[in-house]
């Protein structure tokens, strides 16, 4: 099944259960001081859960563009190295605002996966909140009982507070959740570790696909919990992961969400993408070299999406706030293509064409903003490549003036700080010339500089990242005005 059809089928399934299909909210938030980018499906519905606004229909379904590159959810460093964390991804969701609860949410998730999509029950596992004595929250027996009607009990695993209890922040709605995991290991891989207790949810080929959150408590200012008068359902399923399962491949990058972009990268760069998924043995030298190319190709195909969607939403790369995050993502892609794909000229902008063809139906902003997206990416690429060129010359000078086998941390820092030359690239080039980098010295200078300017005005409070674009401010707490109304307070630093 094609990815377009998978998305449509999900939405239609819930539409048939009286949900209204709503479009994705913009990913870049302009008027929410507590969050830079939407990082989960629930973010745009926050006001409904807090009871500050009322939806037209108390059942909604959507596919929300999410970006997880800052604050509580920061997957950036994972991206490219594993095959199922992205910077930008779509979160499919169904929502109940004070309407249906656990029973229906669980039954429908199961029906959709196993009957509509035909996923084999024998590769599914679910988790249930085990309870937390210290916090006085009981185990989620209700969810357990609903699940055991559907799945054999040895496939229901207990999860702790970290994975199976969701909170919006220090206060507000919260509740236990149940997650659905898919074991995509091949029969041979399973045979390697026999036994029924083997299922290890941390195994890279056992992938979490769907999180069902049951909002049933309210956390009060004094930390205690009370039952919510209106209980809510918030679910989030990773669209690209679902496509991986349904298209019967081992990596999100092998789904049709990514393959057209990857083919285009191969054509332009004349490199091949040869994934080594599921290899538990060590890699040969040749495979290690290939894997660097694979990582680079995954990084670029992921990052071009994040950057393109952001620009389409009106967030251009810049030197502050959200714009700086976008610039860093794009520069990460450029660095990988420069180093591992030998790309010395702009080319990432050329991927926007395939991307907008592939995703334009679901996200028409990619078509209407295409020209702008291409121009902005191209200009950014050209300018950062010039930086890299200059940096290489400077580094050459530094190397020539180094007498021993170790390059000074201070010099490397200067290159990084003044010229924007990435430190990992410095380290790589030095190692190629059998030189060392004084990493301790570098870190010392970095620390000193961080203390000087607390430029990253970012502070994470659970699901909300406190951030201001123009002035650097520090979050200092909430003022409680009336019940349920919280005013965040900031001070300039
Ligand atoms: P993981 O444990 O894999 O990092 P999560 O528990 O952080 O996922 P949730 O916050 O529960 O994820 O989000 C709901 C769903 O969104 C997940 O079950 C997963 O399918 C998907 N998802 C989460 N993070 C990513 C990501 N970085 N890239 C792609 N899909 C993601
Ligand atoms: Mg995560
Ligand atoms: Mg998880
Ligand atoms: Mg989860």
Automatic annotation (TrEMBL):
GO molecular function: alanine-tRNA ligase activity; aminoacyl-tRNA deacylase activity; ATP binding; tRNA binding; zinc ion binding
Zinc in keyword set: yes
Record GO biological process: alanyl-tRNA aminoacylation
Catalytic activity: tRNA(Ala) + L-alanine + ATP = L-alanyl-tRNA(Ala) + AMP + diphosphate
GO CC terms of this entry: cytoplasm
Cofactor dependency: Zn(2+)
Keyword flag Acetylation: no
Entry's EC annotation: 6.1.1.7
Cofactor binding note: Binds 1 zinc ion per subunit.
Localization annotation: Cytoplasm
Main location: cytoplasm
UniProt keyword annotations, A-Z: Aminoacyl-tRNA synthetase, ATP-binding, Cytoplasm, Ligase, Metal-binding, Nucleotide-binding, Protein biosynthesis, RNA-binding, tRNA-binding, Zinc
Domain Alanyl-transfer RNA synthetases family profile: 1-493
Organism superkingdom: Bacteria
Function: Catalyzes the attachment of alanine to tRNA(Ala) in a two-step reaction: alanine is first activated by ATP to form Ala-AMP and then transferred to the acceptor end of tRNA(Ala). Also edits incorrectly charged Ser-tRNA(Ala) and Gly-tRNA(Ala) via its editing domain.
Domain notes: Consists of three domains; the N-terminal catalytic domain, the editing domain and the C-terminal C-Ala domain. The editing domain removes incorrectly charged amino acids, while the C-Ala domain, along with tRNA(Ala), serves as a bridge to cooperatively bring together the editing and aminoacylation centers thus stimulating deacylation of misacylated tRNAs.
Family label: Belongs to the class-II aminoacyl-tRNA synthetase family.
Name the UniProt record assigns to this protein: Alanine--tRNA ligase
Originating organism: Bizionia argentinensis JUB59
Full protein: residues contained: 1 to 493 of 883
